[in-house]
Amino acid sequence: MIYLDLFLGFLKVGLFAFGGAYGAIPLIRDVVLSCGWLKDEALSNMIAISESTPGPIMVNLATFVGASQAGVWGSLLATLAVVLPSFLIILILTALLKNLIKNRYVQAVLRGVKPAVIGIVLATGAFMLVKALFPEKSAADSTDLVLTLALMAMYFLPRKFSKKKLSPILFIVVSAVLGAAVYTVFPG
Fold first, then answer.
1. 112-149 core/surface letters (b: 16 or more CB in 10 A; e: else)
2. Model pTM?
3. Residue 162, SS3 per DSSP
4. 77 neighbors 107 (Cβ within 8 angstroms)
5. What are the pLDDT digits (tens) for 43-63?
């Protein structure tokens, strides 16, 4: 039964996630929490890990949740389910793409969906930031707040004073090292 639940749950994510992985995080959160596969804190941690590991976030999350619930077969089924709709849609669209993309109705739909996806991504980011800084069980952790502010400064200041952007890889590595160092010295 868990195999069918994993397949159908992540098939739902794959079918209705529009706008990429960040737009899918609320849907993944809803499916995973409603099925009781992970607690909210564990899911938030897995989202962070999925963002910093190679591969698409949705695939990484599906693989992890599937493996945590039903081992290798669970990870394979969840991963297959989350990528199957996109694979089939892209396969069909490539056959129709020449005429379809120029259609004014298709263009109108894409222009209409774009602001919704941007809103979903921003809302998800704000939700995760608030959850990280203000956990339900305790007041704001000053270490989390200082690290968040330091990383924000590291990300935005180079853009303010020079035309060079900070390398995302460097940002991820520095964030990981800084987090490991700070939480080793100040655990909890």
1. eeeeeeeebbeebeeeeeeebeeeeeeeeeeebeebee
2. 0.56
3. coil
4. no
5. 888 888 888 888 888 899 999
